Amino acid sequence: MIQLQHISKWVNQGGRRVFILKDISINIQEGEFISIMGPSGSGKSTLLNVIGMLDEPNEGEYDFMGTNVLTLKEKQRSEIYKSHIGFVFQAYHLIDELTVYENIETPLFYQNIKAAGRKAMVADIIDRFQMVGKKDLFPAQLSGGQQQLVGIARALIVKPKLILADEPTGNLNSKQGEEIMELFKDLNNEGVTIIQVTHSEKNAAYGSRIINLLDGRVIL
Fold first, then answer.
1. In sequence order, what E strands does 51-158 have?
2. 3.30.1330.10, 3.40.190.10, 3.40.50.300, 3.30.360.10: which CATH number matches 2-95+149-219?
3. Which among 12, 45, 86, 162 is most buried, taking Cβ atoms within 10 Å?
């Protein structure tokens, strides 16, 4: 599903290259549950953003489902991202002025789905996440765990093949975090590929494979 070959990313500081990612080569099969671990500053989130097409490397090749995405125009990459990838962030990134229902519905507008179709899809996922009673509330009226559930529901509404999660339980208590990880496990069992960045050994153990980063390199 994903092939990264010799991926490097750097910034120029004082006339020299400072590497954020250095010569990373990884293959990820469809249906895997990958945990990316490493200390702060090791390049975990940058790697996730490269995989999610939110960031571009300076060198290397990236093949996603048979397409070399780095040769595509930005609009073409955006189409792949919107069709196949769901992102879950530590900070939720919900839109404060929109209700739970409207936040979850937002990605569907980019896919030109008609109103009746959007209504059915949102109703289905709100029912699955047992949020019917909260659909008209705003993010500020929800707990952290509930906000993260809305973020995951929004990521899932487009039925992505790949979910990228950046410290998805970082702002949650242990019980809420466990519920989120169990949800990811269920989704993975349904065939969704998941790549998570985590500091937590416990969360990492939900994955089928752990990739360790240190100073922008994969440590074997």
1. 59-64, 67-68, 85-89
2. 3.40.50.300
3. 86
